[in-house]
Amino acid sequence: MDFEKKLGRLEEIVTKMEKGELALEDSLKLFEEGVSLSRECQSRLNEAEEKVKKLIGFGMDGKPVTEPFEAED
After folding, report:
1. Where residue 73 falls among pLDDT bands split at 50, 70, 90?
2. What's the confidence (pLDDT) of residue 22?
3. Does residue 56 contact residue 65 with C-beta atoms inside 8 Å?
4. How confident is the model at residue 21 (pLDDT cuts 50, 70, 90)?
5. What is the pLDDT of residue 71?
6. Distances, alpha carbon 18 to alpha carbons 5, 12, 62, 63, 64, in Å
7. Of 56, 45, 52, 48, which Cα lies nearest the Cα of 70?
8. Which of 38, 46, 57 is nearest to 66 (CA)?
9. Which helix (H) or strand (E) holds 14?
10. How far apart are CA 68 and CA 53, in angstroms?
């Protein structure tokens, strides 16, 4: 399942759980699935962040000069 589908499924789970109409057992199953999907999405985001570089200018040869992107806290 790709990132967008996982995120969509996670949103569905949150919506269902927020309604408060599920049986305890169903809530627990969805919660476990949601935690798993959340971890997978976070892992994918971390991987993507490591690949992102910030453009800081252009060198004398006209090629882009980059540095690793660091998220601001």
Report:
1. low
2. 95
3. yes
4. very high
5. 60
6. 20, 10, 53, 51, 47
7. 52
8. 57
9. helix 3-19
10. 5
Nearest one of 42, 38, 41 to 13, comparing CA atoms: 38
Q: Which of 12-21, 41-50, 58-67 has the highest mean pLDDT?
A: 12-21
Q: Where are the beta strands (DSSP E) in the chain?
A: 53-58, 64-68
Q: What residue type is 70 in one-letter code?
A: E
To 10 degrees, the CA torsion angle through 31, 33, 36, 37? -110
Query: Cα–Cα distance between 18 and 30 in angstroms, integer?
Result: 12
User: What's 22-53 look like in SS3?
Assistant: CCHHHHHHHHHHHHHHHHHHHHHHHHHHHHCE
